[in-house]
Design goal:
alpha/beta; Rossmann fold; 2 domains; disordered C terminus
Length: 470
C-alpha cells in the first residue's frame, strides 16, 4: 500500500502552521524545511522515501507560506521565529529529538536550531547553502542581482504584481533552475528575465506548477519576500559557533548559488570544519538549485536519516554513531532510562571501518576488509572486550566468548555495515529474539545465519563469517 502524505494544522506560538506528515516514526523523526519559492511540496519525494524506511517525515509550511497563517503585517521577519517554530512543532508532536534537513533559506533555521538546541537535534543536512558565521554580504554584486532587488521594499511586489501567481512561480523556477545567477540589466525587472517561451525544467511538470501556484495563491508573496530576502542580512555574528551534532551538506555543482561570493571557497577550503567538527560534503555534478526535485534518488542516496536512528536500508545516512552515546529514537531504553551503547562497529566516510567498545577503538580495518567479512570479527572482538567470557555455563555447558550472561545489566549494542547503510539496535542482555525487538527488520541486520534468528541471539552469538556488507 502506497504511503500518502497527510496534512494537519498545529497551533504554534499564536499561528496555525500547516504541517505535512507521513510515516509512523518507529525509527525516529526527520523534519524537512523548505526554501523559496518552495513549500512543503518540494520535499514530497524525500518525505515518502523516509517514511517507507520507517521514519516519520514532517514538513511544515514556514510561517507566512502556503497553508500556514500569516504573521501580523507589521511583524519583522526573524530567523529566531523560524527556530522557535520548529521547537514548537517538536514539542506539540512530543518529538524529543529530530534530524533536520534544510534547503535554500530553510538551511538557516536548521543550522541555528542545531546550535541553540543540540539536545533536540540528531544531526543536520542542508542543500545549497553553507553555514555562515557572519551575515551574508552581497555588496560586490551588481545592482540588478535579484536578492538586492527583492530586498528593496515594494520593488518585487510591483514586479510580481504584473502577473498572476502561476506565472510568477513559473518564472522563478525557470530562473533558479539554471546555472547562472539571475541578474537584471538596468531598467529591466527580474520577472522579465524569462517569458512563457522559456520551457520549464524537464523534471518540473505543469501539475507541479499547479500545486505551487495553488499554495501561493493562498499565502501571496508578502511574507516570503520578507523571509528570506529582507532578513538574511540580519543573521548574527557567530564566530565562536561550534556544532555538537554531525552536519552534512549536499551541493549541486550547477546550482547558481555556488557562484555567490565566498560560497565555493567556504565549501571547498575546509573553513567550515572550524565550526563543524563532524562535517561531510557531497557534490552532485548535474545538480541544480532544486536538486531534491530534479534528482530525488541521488539526493535520497546522499542525504538520509542518521545511522544512529537505524538508517534506511536502501540509502546512505549522513551521520556516524556518536562515540559511546545512546542510540536513536527507535532504541529500547535500559533500566537506567537511557540506553548505553557498549559496542559499536562503525564505517567512516573515509572508508575506515572501526569497532569500538566503551568508547575505545578495539579493531579497525578498511572497507574492503569489512566487505570480505572482517567486520564480523571486529564485532566479535568488540563484544569480547566489553563482555569477557561469562563465569557461568550457557548453551548446555559451553561458554561463548563475547556472549552476554544473565547478570549483565540491560545494554544496547549497535552493529553497522561498511557503508553506514544500516544500523539496528538490540537491547536485552539475553534471550533477544525478533519478537522482543518490534519494529526492527532483522533481515537488514545482515546476519544471514538463520540460527541467530531463532531462540536467543546473544547466547547463540558466534563470529558471523557470512555477515554481508553491502
Amino acid at each position: 500500500m502506497a504511503l500518502e502524505i497527510e496534512h494537519t494544522h498545529l497551533p504554534i506560538r499564536g499561528l496555525n502552521l500547516h504541517v505535512a506528515h507521513v510515516g509512523k516514526g518507529d525509527l525516529g523523526t526527520v523534519v524537512f524545511l523548505h526554501g523559496f519559492p518552495e513549500i512543503w511540496y518540494s520535499w514530497r519525494h524525500q518525505m515518502v522515501a523516509v517514511a517507507a524506511a520507517g521514519y516519520r517525515a514532517i514538513e511544515p509550511d514556514c510561517r507566512g507560506y502556503g497553508l500556514s497563517d500569516q504573521p501580523p503585517e507589521d511583524e519583522e521577519a526573524s530567523l529566531d521565529d523560524l527556530v522557535a517554530d520548529v521547537l514548537g512543532i517538536l514539542d506539540a508532536l512530543s518529538v524529543p529529538k529530530a534530524f533536520l534537513v534544510g534547503k535554500d533559506f530553510g538551511a538557516m533555521p536548521a543550522y541555528e536550531f542545531a546550535l541553540q538546541h543540540p539536545d533536540r537535534t540528531r544531526g543536520v543536512a542542508c542543500l545549497g547553502i553553507p553555514f555562515s558565521p557572519v551575515p551574508f554580504s552581497f555588496d560586490t554584486m551588481p545592482e540588478g542581482f535579484y536578492v538586492l532587488r527583492w530586498r528593496e521594499p515594494g520593488r518585487a511586489e510591483a514586479d510580481f504584481g504584473r502577473f498572476d501567481v502561476r506565472r510568477v512561480v513559473r518564472t522563478v523556477y525557470v530562473l533558479f533552475s539554471g546555472a547562472e545567477i539571475p541578474i537584471a540589466k538596468e531598467g529591466q525587472e527580474i520577472m522579465e528575465l524569462a517569458d512563457l517561451s522559456t520551457p520549464l525544467p524537464a523534471w518540473f511538470t505543469e501539475e507541479d506548477l499547479d500545486a505551487y501556484a495553488k499554495l501561493y495563491e493562498k499565502s501571496g508573496f508578502g511574507y516570503p519576500l520578507k523571509m528570506p530576502y529582507r532578513a538574511i542580512h540580519k543573521i548574527p555574528n557567530q564566530l565562536d559557533a561550534k556544532f555538537q551534532v554531525p552536519v552534512f551538506m549536499v551541493m549541486g555543482e550547477k546550482d547558481y548559488c555556488f557562484k555567490f561570493p565566498g560560497f565555493e571557497t567556504a565549501m571547498r577550503s575546509g573553513i567550515m570544519n572550524n565550526f563543524m567538527p563532524d562535517l561531510k560534503i557531497a557534490y552532485i555534478p548535474e545538480g541544480s538549485h532544486f536538486v531534491q526535485e530534479q534528482l530525488p534518488e541521488q539526493v535520497g542516496h546522499q542525504a538520509r536519516p542518521p545511522a544512529q536512528d537505524a538508517g534506511p536500508p536502501a540509502t546512505d545516512p549522513i551521520e556516524r554513531l556518536p562515540k559511546g552515546g545512546g542510540g536513536g529514537g527507535a532504541g529500547h531504553e535500559g533500566r537506567a532510562g537511557k540506553p548505553e551503547v557498549v559496542a559499536e562497529v562503525e564505517a567512516r566516510w573515509d572508508g575506515v571501518a572501526v569497532a569500538e567498545a566503551g568508547g575505545e577503538v578495539v579493531a579497525q580495518g578498511n572497507a574492503t576488509e569489512a566487505k570480505e567479512g572482517s567486520l564480523a570479527d571486529m564485532i566479535d572482538r568488540a563484544l569480547e572486550k566489553e563482555f569477557p567470557e561469562s563465569e557461568g555455563e550457557q548453551d548446555g555447558g559451553e561458554t561463548n566468548p563475547g556472549s552476554f550472561n544473565n547478570t549483565v545489566s540491560e545494554k544496547q549494542v549497535v552493529f553497522m555495515n561498511k557503508n553506514n547503510l544500516e544500523a539496528r539496535t538490540l537491547s536485552k542482555p539475553a534471550n533477544v529474539t525478533k519478537d522482543l525487538a518490534p519494529g526492527y527488520s532483522w533481515n537488514t541486520l545482515n546476519f544471514l545465519n538463520e540460527r541467530t534468528l531463532k531462540g536467543t541471539f546473544f547466547d547463540n552469538y558466534k563470529p558471523q563469517t557470512d555477515l554481508q556488507c553491502r
